[in-house]
Amino acid sequence: MESSTTRRSSLARLGVVLGVFGVVAGVASVLIQDMAFRSAGSTAVYTSEQPFDWFAFSLTVSAVLILAALVAVAVAAVIASVLLVRWARRSREAA
Predict the structure, then answer these.
(1) Measured between alpha carbons, how far is 22 from 33 in angstroms, rounded to an integer?
(2) What pTM was estimated for this model as a whole?
(3) How much is the pLDDT for 71?
(4) CA-to-CA distance for 92 and 95, rounded, in angstroms?
(5) How far apart are CA 12 and CA 18, in angstroms?
(6) Are 81 and 24 in contact (CB under 8 A)?
């Protein structure tokens, strides 16, 4: 059986990991969108096959990343608030 301190530290670690992932995914999403709009233009390709639409692909990946970032940051905020309430209760009981 785990102790309360071990559970709390694992929960804190999970919160930090989710927060960092959320920030990194958000920044990656912004960079992907920026590159997608910079590269949107016509390039002369002499072929009869349909070219891959990198613009739509990058916007889709960016949307998925921003959604994952929002979920990760929201879960990290909930974990942080739970740990903060537990810490406040424990410090009030100790006083």
Answers:
(1) 16
(2) 0.74
(3) 95
(4) 5
(5) 10
(6) no
Torsion-angle region of residue 4: left (phi > 0), alpha (psi -120 to 50) or beta?
Answer: alpha
All structural domains of the chain with their residue ranges: 3-94
Mean of the per-residue pLDDT values of the chain: 84
Eight-class DSSP state of 40: -
d(CA 88, CA 80): 12
- The model's pLDDT over 33-71, given as tens digits with 9 standing for 90+, comes to 888 777 655 566 666 777 777 788 888 999 999 999 999
Q: What is the distance between the alpha carbons of residues 54 and 74, in angstroms, rounded to a whole number? A: 30
Residue 49 is classified by DSSP as S
| Confidence check: pLDDT of 75 > 80 | yes
What's the rounded Cα separation, in Å, for the pair 64 and 2? Answer: 36
